[in-house]
Amino acid sequence: MEFDPKTPQFLTSDPSSFASVSADDRWPVIITGAIDDLARTVNTVTDEEKAREGKSIIEKLGTLKYELQHDRQLSPLDDDGESDIASYNEELKQRGNPKWHDAPWLYSECYLYRRMETFFFRSKHWKGYDVFARQKMSTFKSSRPAVLELAARYRELAHEAESGKGHDGMSAEQIEEAEKLLFTEMCEICLWGNATDLSLLTSLTYEDIQKLQGSQARQASQKNIIVNDLEAAFNVMQKARVEKKDGDRRVDIVLDNSGFELFVDLILAGYLLSAGLATTVVLHPKRLPWFVSDVTPRDFSDLLNSMVDPQAFYTAPDDTGKTYPALSAKEVEDVQFLFQQWSEFHQDGKLIVRPHSFWTTQGCYWRMPHVAPELFEDLKESELVLFKGDLNYRKLVNDAQWDPTTPFTTAIGPMGPKSGIRVLAFRTCKADVVVGLPAGEDEKLRQLPGGGGSESRKWAWTGKWAVVSFSDGKV
């Protein structure tokens, strides 16, 4: 806490904030979903000892839900042998052992998922079990139309790049402008992939997911990017490509959600490598199940495995017995083209998966230079570090009650100017905190239907609006 900014954080006790909505409405649903998932698995277990232990974890999840709904104090985490427990408990003590409904939102939400994980870490038979895995892959299957659309589009672009046809008869300036437009398209695909966040959208139907994805939805949402620093990000990458033509040019992506969002993250990574804007892309997943749908290393392999035989994956009946039409031969080839390319990048050391324990700590990224200095120094080696999604954004700015006109470079503190790190944040807004807005923009958005008016910043809760914020810490 000593390294955090002094600006107060959002609290679960603030009825005008999404923090209160999360504690009251979202978290009990998430815990209930975890209980249901584990119960479903336990019912298939034949080993009596494992089944008993699974039922014991279900009881612990039930106790956690009871404490949350009855506003008990957050209790110290049980030691599960992992190095972060002491830090969680020390901070809990420093914060005065708050109750669930009067606690800093960022800390208490991280605590929630970390406490759930202690139940599994401390078990004999359930270590590594992910209560969200089934839900993650089901949602990715529901993303079929958007996956097929993007796979076809990407394959077409890759063939154009290989043949050089796309730049026939163009001047150097025209080629750069065309590349900038393509970079923008790829980044916007990656940005809006964040709309499918399972920790928020707990009752999505197959049809709802399809409406959130696809080119028409993205085009309609372009006007909703209220801060857009993509051009500045492209310019530094283009400059690096020229100045370090034969050198290593690394891009890091601090991942957010698995499933469709991880798919579009890989689309972007593949594009950066194919276009020569990067020579290496390092992906940073979480090391444990986190905020329902965040990427773990296993999610990365699950996604690739689903693409080995897309016909089988996308036509298999779901839990209700509903069947799905077969993919065309071209659709199968498009998906398998991506699988082949990504696999080759991974095997060649150009696409690297690198988890780190810091990403599931309870604090903001202002702490990184002090509590994870080796990670901070490593990120300086990157040309650009892309932070995906709402939680990464909240952690960059400490989920603090900044004035919305506060510059992004100010709000990210030690990650900002002169840090040696170029930060690019892709975020569809699903929490109150927002910075870098022009004067009057927040007030204007509040006056829209459902915008919150003078009472709250509800416009920033829904994922309808987005920000793309850049800080060049290498200047």
From TrEMBL:
Subfamily III proteins have a conserved RTxK motif about 40-50 residues from the C-terminus; the threonine may be replaced by serine or cysteine. It catalyses: beta-D-fructose 1-phosphate + H2O = D-fructose + phosphate; beta-D-fructose 6-phosphate = dihydroxyacetone + D-glyceraldehyde 3-phosphate. SUPFAM superfamilies: AF1104-like. It comes from Penicillium daleae. It comes from the Eukaryota. GO terms for molecular function: metal ion binding; phosphatase activity. Residues 23-445 form the Damage-control phosphatase ARMT1-like metal-binding domain. Keywords: Hydrolase, Manganese, Metal-binding. The lineage of its organism: Eukaryota, Fungi, Dikarya, Ascomycota, Pezizomycotina. Its EC number is 3.1.3.-. Pfam families: ARMT1-like_dom (PF01937). This is Sugar phosphate phosphatase. GO terms for cellular component: nucleus. Its cofactor is Mn(2+); Ni(2+).
